[in-house]
Amino acid sequence: MQKLVLLLLVAFGSHTFTSAQNIQSPSDFLGYEIGTQFSRHHQVVDYFKSVANTLPNQVKLEEYGKTNERRSLYLAYVSSEENIKSLETIRENNLKNTGLLEGTPTSTDVAIVWLSYNVHGNEASSTEASMLTLFKLLTEQKDLLKNTVVIIDPCINPDGRDRYVNWYNETASQPYDIDRKASEHNEPWPGGRPNHYLFDLNRDWAWATQVETQKRLEVYNKWMPHIHVDFHEQGINEPYYFAPAAEPFHEIISDWQRDFQTQIGKNHAKYFDAEGWLFFTRERFDLFYPSYGDTYPTYMGAIGMTYEQGGHGMAGLGILNDEGHVLTLVERLTHHTTTGISTVEIASKNASKLNTEFAKFFNNSNLKYKSYVVSGNTDKLNSLKELLNKHDIAFENPNNSKISGYNYQTGKQSNINVSSDALVVHTNQPKGKMVKVLFEPNAKLTDSLTYDITAWSVPYAYGLDAIASTSKVSSSKLFERIELNVIYDAYGYVSKWNSINDAKFLADVLQHKFKVRFTEKPFTSNGTKFERGSLIITKGDNTHIDKFVSKLNTIAQKHSKALTQINTGFSEIYPDIGSPDIKLINQQKVAVLSGEGTSSLSYGEIWHFFEKQLHYPLTSINTDNLSRTNLDKFNVLIIPSGYYGSVLDESNMTKLKDWVRAGGKVIAIDGALRSFAGKDGFSLKYKSSKDSEGEEMNDNLTPYADREREYTNNLITGAIFKTKVDSTHPMAFGYGEDYFTLKLGSSAYGLLENGYNVAHLDNTKVYSGFAGKDALKNLDQTLIFGEEPMGSGSFIYMVDNTLFRSFWENGKLFLVNSIFFVNNNAFEL
After folding, report:
1. Contact 265/243 with Cβ under 8 angstroms?
2. Residues forming beta bridges with residue 153, ordered by sequence position
3. What kind of fold does domain 590-820 have according to CATH?
4. What beta strand segments (E) does 216-314 contain?
């Protein structure tokens, strides 16, 4: 088999086709047979540039952005000469066909296929396949391009790919070692899968937190392809996976989308059967969570699919799997090339039908909810606007103040009063089905065995009140209010505290050496009541800053902050500004653990939050160096989710406790709590699941075939719960008495006996998503966020990760409060 694959590659990879104006094959261009080495990103880009320069009438190359590490992101538009000449007309006709662009299309007979490669950097065979796919399309398969535009993104994640490829090229033996214990099959932390900030880009499509996603969506929404394929790799013992996908399918997926996935799968099977290659379909990879490279395009009307080749970062150039087969990069890229070409082939055969059915998808008249109305804090509404703008989803303002429908806060039908600043998002717009997916209170789940989280509703995620209405809400185009808040000389200035934008303002003024206070109690001054957490910046505290008012005004304008002037330190309702309850904020020195033991995703979420959102300095301490790090240089240590059994040994745990007793703060997130629960000196305790008799649950009598499904009774797969909040505690400043949390797992901790239970569950009602019945039994009266004082410092527990994938906007202030407000110690000069 291996010899056959190599012969095929030589035949298709080394020969120069005169009919394609002598474009070089990947092997000729690279100087080695494709698949016998890993190509660096610049080599892949250079190959695409070479082909585009040789065949400019059939290949158009577009740089659509740059990564955090300044690598270029490219798309190649590949088609016939006639189609390339009319590329803009084809694009506009497609958008007109959906109603996204006004007018009537002049033609709808060209299929648009988008092939995305290497979203996970260490699933590196697909980028190699992108080069061979490009070559084959322009040579032996050029007839397919007569009625098809193929958009190729050769590498979605260049930073992650080069991290993997450079490591492998530096590490691998020559010839490669097929023993899986060899170093070349075991990547060091954090691995090549994620991007620069260690985000999984295949979970970022809907939330668009990363620059690669943001830039890609700008182009994707200009094209709206009919088919989108995301190329991946899985474990070394797995055969190839392709469509049709597994259940659950989201309810908005049309019968046509389901059926055509099957047609595509059968077309692939024809080629795999001919070679005797193994594959599977309809298992594991479902179409539900909206932020994948298959689901997001599907909810935008496309046939969205994941193709999974066995291999992953472990495989290298070749590895011996459990079946005694040596799985090579050559084989892996050949499979991906085959499915890529097969996808284009069936699209070409069904170009007209694809256009017809694509247009039908954008008829949204049958959707239950006609409008979603969201109201609340202005900053939070603005953040939601930013998200909707990334997806070209329209929104307006309500014409009436009273709205009726399903109330997200109560989970019942009711009326609410909204201001004219509220947002109305209708479903009778072209992207109405994506509106439904993002806003629906509780997505319909047909199968509890899912690949990812089952709840994500954006009103909960952004901390906004919302109503879902079955009738269209009267609304008008948005009226943008631009109010410049100019401040003048006064005793001091007060800023509200209830959004992440407020936190960005605080971080900025601290960076500019302003002294800032916050209040632990409400006070009233100049007739205005200021709530807990409000920031106070006084002239007297900041005599060291030249042109104090002017500089403060500049920073306030930058963040669109409305500062309220106060003319005296004597409050109408105490505390006064000089009260011990109004404290100076320390310019905290914050560190975070990284390296072995830490979850790279959790660490990346923290890193990205500090650098790209809060814009506040953060020092990374590798776990290998913890024992010899002087923690006295820091005020706060954040421990991401992870497994710290060997890191937080007796010596390091003692060191940590001593540092906290001296005034330090530890913020432990999600899995990091395992290192403290039940340990000496900590009141954090696990809450174990027991049946009604008080004995541990036992499933030994469950039939083997039913074990996987039965196990879901113990799972929580990303469900939303309403928690009770102690809004008087500094960790909860800016929040009300309720907070909707995204619970990612069933781990449960009892309420703290010695400390503060800042947020906790006092019921087990699921507002959105799936939670197994046995897992729910264990959740009542459990901790969500808490503080355990120790000496002069504190351990802060965040059971639920508020930075998860960086999309749960409403939870981020809990982390900021923990850093700056909780157990606020003496100000450092």
Report:
1. yes
2. 116
3. Rossmann fold (3.40.50)
4. 227-234, 240-241, 246-249, 279-280, 286-287, 303-310
DSSP for 645-697, written as a single string? TTTS-HHHHHHHHHHHHTT-EEEEEGGGGGGTTT-TT----B---B-TTSSBP
Cβ count within 10 A of residue 402: 9
Q: 27 is written with which tokens?
A: 């092997």
- The Cβ of residue 500 has, within 10 Å, a number of other Cβ atoms equal to 22
Query: 388: closest CA among 203, 207, 202?
Result: 207
pLDDT tens digits for range 347-380: 999 999 999 999 999 999 999 999 999 999 999 9
Q: Under DSSP, is residue 150 helix (H, G, I), strand (E, B) or coil?
A: strand
Gap between the Cα atoms of 316 and 313, Å rounded: 6
Q: Are 384 and 462 in contact (CB under 8 A)?
A: yes
Q: How far is the first Cα of the chain from the last one, in angstroms, to the nearest whole number?
A: 71
Three-state secondary-structure class, residue 536: strand
Query: Per-residue pLDDT averaged across 664-689, rounded?
Result: 94
The alpha carbon dihedral of 578, 583, 585, 588 has a sign of: positive
Q: Given a cut of 60, is residue 611 above it in pLDDT?
A: yes
Which of 174, 192, 60, 218 is closest to 125 using CA atoms?
A: 192
Copy the structure tokens of residue 533. Answer: 């957490």
d(CA 670, CA 785): 10
Q: In this predicted structure, what is the pLDDT of residue 285? A: 85
- Phi, psi angle pair for 810, to nearest 5°: -70, -15
Sorted by sequence, the CB contacts under 8 Å of residue 774 that are 6+ apart come out as 689, 697, 713, 714
- 157: closest CA among 192, 129, 119, 126? 119
Tokens of 47: 């190959």
Asked if 784 and 764 count as a contact pair (C-beta separation under 8 A), the reply is no
The per-residue DSSP string of 94-115 comes to HHHHHTSSSS--S----EEEEE
Chain position carrying tokens 């305790």? 685
Q: What is the mean pLDDT of residues 618-633?
A: 97
Q: Which two tokens stand for residue 377?
A: 């804090």
Give residue for tokens 């120069």.
Answer: 16
Q: Please state which CATH number belongs to domain 2-361.
A: 3.40.630.10
Predicted confidence at residue 715, as pLDDT, reads 82
| CA distance linking residue 116 with residue 127, whole number of Å | 9
Domain boundaries, the chain: 2-361, 371-477, 492-584, 590-820
Q: Using alpha carbons, list the distances in angstroms from residue 267 to 228, 261, 273, 294, 315.
A: 16, 10, 10, 19, 27
Give the per-residue SS3 of 760-793.
Answer: EECCCCCCECCECHHHHHCCCCEEEEEEEEECCE
- Average pLDDT for residues 763-774, to the nearest whole number? 91
Gap between the Cα atoms of 108 and 352, Å rounded: 7
Query: What pLDDT score was predicted for residue 706?
Result: 60
- According to the model, what pLDDT value does residue 361 have? 96
Q: Is 398 helix (H, G, I), strand (E, B) or coil?
A: strand
| Residue in the block written with tokens 């389901």 | 258
Q: Are 517 and 577 in contact (CB under 8 A)?
A: yes
Backbone angles phi, psi at 163, to 5 degrees: -60, -45
- pLDDT, tens digit, 9 for 90 and up, residues 287-339: 889 999 999 999 999 999 999 999 999 999 999 999 999 999 999 999 999 99
**Half-sphere exposure in the Cβ direction for 574 (13 Å, CA):** 6
Amino acid at 680: D
Question: Whole-model pTM?
Answer: 0.94
Position of tokens 């035949």? Answer: 11
- Sequence-separated contacts (24+) of 319-324 with Cβ below 8 Å: 319/178, 319/180, 319/185, 319/236, 320/178, 320/179, 320/180, 321/236, 321/237, 322/236, 322/237, 323/237
Q: Which of 116-130, 156-170, 246-260, 516-530 has the lowest mean pLDDT?
A: 246-260
